[in-house]
Design a protein that fits this description.
270 residues; alpha+beta; Jelly Rolls; four-stranded antiparallel sheet; 15 strands; binds 2-oxoglutaric acid
């Protein structure tokens, strides 16, 4: 199988729009494997809302609540996907997160408009997310929506805490920050993926279509950034159980140019 190569047009489009749907999708065998891993994940984590399966790539006890499956780590390290990422963020690549957002067909929680950078202790702020559709993700069942070009000012806008139980995340960008009429729906079939920048404003509607929608968000930062485990300030305000202090991260390619990232923490948890 040829590894994917982005055209100059695709790379330019990612830079100017803040997102990209590459012309490459998971091979059928890999998709099937991931769908089986999803079935395992949902079965083992029935006590957790399926929109909140944080660190699904960590099979052992990771102090973030989810009992994960190694298939998600394999997906995050899958050479063709990392090749795509390399073309966008360069040769030094650190995997620091993997979150499965599964919206059931009835009462699937809304993901409010937000910027990822607001949630994460990465300095300087830089991350590319590859959102892999494990099931069809369309307008009717709450696909990801973005505000094109909203990443350009590299500004984090104010977010307000939403004290609601029916949200995938509870930090919502202030209403007057952007024009919702400019939104673009990233409709994907199972196996396709979208890629978005850390400053991109995005969200997804609730799902009541009767058809489940699942994506796995793989988070990669360049080796020029630090995962600052101690600088996290949002505490319990995000609506998802996270523990950045003990989360393992992986250097997938190249070098940690900062020399400050800790690649030992969390890898030996039982
Ligand atoms: O899938 C969703 O509903 C939200 C995904 C998201 O916010 C992200 O991947 O950053």
């Amino acid at each position: 199988m040829m590894n994917p190569s982005l055209s100059k047009l695709e790379i330019d489009s990612y830079r100017s729009e803040g997102f990209l749907i590459p012309n490459w999708r998971l091979p059928a065998s890999m998709l099937l494997k991931m769908q089986q891993a999803l079935a395992y994940l949902l079965d083992k984590n029935q006590h957790i809302r399926p929109e909140k399966l944080v660190s699904a790539h960590i099979a052992k006890n990771n102090q973030e609540g989810t009992q994960g499956h190694t298939a998600f780590l394999e997906l995050a390290r899958y050479e063709p996907i990392v090749d795509l990422v390399e073309q966008l963020i360069g040769p030094d690549i650190i995997l620091w997160g993997c979150h499965v957002f599964c919206k059931p067909g009835e009462n699937g929680y809304e993901t409010p408009w937000h910027q990822d950078g607001h949630y994460w202790p990465i300095r300087p702020l830089a991350t590319t997310t590859v959102w892999v559709a494990l099931e069809d993700s369309k307008l009717y069942n709450g696909c990801l929506k973005v505000i094109p070009k909203s990443h350009i000012p590299k500004t984090l806008y104010p977010h307000l805490h939403e004290d609601r139980q029916d949200l995938a995340l509870t930090q919502k960008i202030a209403d007057d920050t952007f024009d919702p009429a400019t939104e673009k729906a990233l409709e994907l079939s199972a196996g396709e993926m979208s890629i978005h920048d850390i400053y991109m404003i995005h969200g997804a509607q609730a799902n009541n279509s009767g058809v489940r929608r699942t994506g796995v968000a793989l988070r990669y930062m360049p080796g020029t950034s630090v995962f600052e485990r101690d600088s996290y300030t949002l505490g319990g305000q995000t609506g998802v159980p996270i523990n950045f202090a003990t989360r393992p991260i992986w250097l997938l390619r190249g070098k940690d140019q900062t020399g400050k990232n800790d690649f030992n923490i969390g890898h030996d948890a039982g």
